[in-house]
Specification:
The chain is mainly alpha-helical. The protein is 75% helix and 0% strand.
Length: 319
């Protein structure tokens, strides 16, 4: 197991370095001069002033040298300063937005995992029934519908037309922030987040459990007179969890991309909205910092998924 963990950690570190190199290179290949983000168009500057600013920021050096300087600072926790937030530290902006994103993702993924597994078990136990067909149809519809489209439909129906929930934001402007107010604003984006992730979990849970229920050890348990609930929970469900655990880990990674759309639609002040605004403003330090943190989060989740998979099936740790 220690060797297995060491290999996974080393692979995650290499992938994070590769991601940072790729993002740094792509940003430098985009049209325009990065120095423009640091210049106030209302303040006249001579060419000498621009050259001095470029030198002070290190933009006159080669790209490899610039990347190494940025990476050394990032290792020590210095992600630079935002060009659109009054030179605020990127680290502080990310820390401020991480909480709302974790709240949204945690609530949505909890709903997706519990709901997907529950409905998947029901669908497998009632295979080929009217309920199973209905759940399969809803699952197919949920998989095919993009997250931003589902978000727009929920926003129009439940917020605009019915008025059951606030249309966006983290809390009501102009009033003291309360847990109830935040919960009311969380309902719609978390529901969209959960539903879009739940459908795939449902299908995987159903397929894995149906396969497990057809194994010889399950038939043997039934022949011995074991209660059906025990057969499903104690015998079939544990083996059916292996592919579902992998899917949940993959969902966490995909959830980061979905969060960008959902936070934009519902104006949820999280990492996704922060990254979108940074791209629109060509805020290079903030883009790099947010992309690095999001990439690290995805890699950590994948690492934890591998470890959980190995804990469920000890044979994995020997590979």
């Amino acid at each position: 197991m220690p060797y297995f963990i060491a290999r996974r950690v080393a692979a995650a570190c290499l992938m994070l370095i590769a991601l940072s190199v790729l993002m740094f290179g792509l940003l430098r290949l985009t049209p325009g001069d990065p120095i423009a983000a640091y210049i106030d168009p209302t303040v006249p500057m001579s060419e000498a002033d621009v050259a001095a600013l470029r030198h002070r920021l290190g933009l006159d050096r080669s790209l490899p040298v610039q990347y190494v300087a940025w990476a050394e600072a990032a290792v020590h926790g210095d992600l630079g300063y935002s060009t659109q937030h009054e030179r605020a530290p990127v680290r502080a902006l990310i820390a401020e937005r991480a909480g709302p994103t974790l709240l949204l993702m945690g609530t949505g993924l909890l709903l997706a995992t519990v709901g997907g597994m529950l409905f998947g078990i029901i669908s497998a136990v009632r295979a080929n029934s009217a309920l199973d067909i209905a759940l399969a149809s809803l699952s197919a519809l949920g998989i095919s519908a993009p997250a931003f489209l589902v978000a727009l439909i929920f926003l129009f129906v439940f917020a605009v037309r019915l008025g059951w929930a606030p249309a966006g934001g983290l809390a009501t402007p102009g009033v003291p922030v309360t847990a109830g107010d935040v919960l009311a604003h969380l309902v719609l984006p978390a529901a969209v987040f959960g539903i879009t992730q739940m459908t795939m979990t449902l299908r995987f849970m159903r397929g894995a459990l149906l396969e497990a229920l057809g194994q010889d050890y399950v038939r043997t348990a039934r022949a011995k007179g074991v209660a059906e609930f025990s057969v499903i929970v104690k015998h079939a469900l544990r083996n059916a969890l292996l592919p579902v655990v992998t899917l949940v880990g993959a969902n966490l990674g995909a959830a980061v991309g979905g969060a960008i759309f959902i936070e934009s639609v519902f104006n949820w002040p999280g990492m996704g909205l922060l990254l979108v605004n940074a791209v629109e403003a060509r805020d290079y330090p903030l883009i790099m910092g947010a992309a690095l943190v999001i990439g690290a989060f995805v890699l950590i989740i994948n690492l934890l998924t591998d470890l959980l998979y190995a804990a469920i099936d000890p044979r994995i740790a020997l590979r």
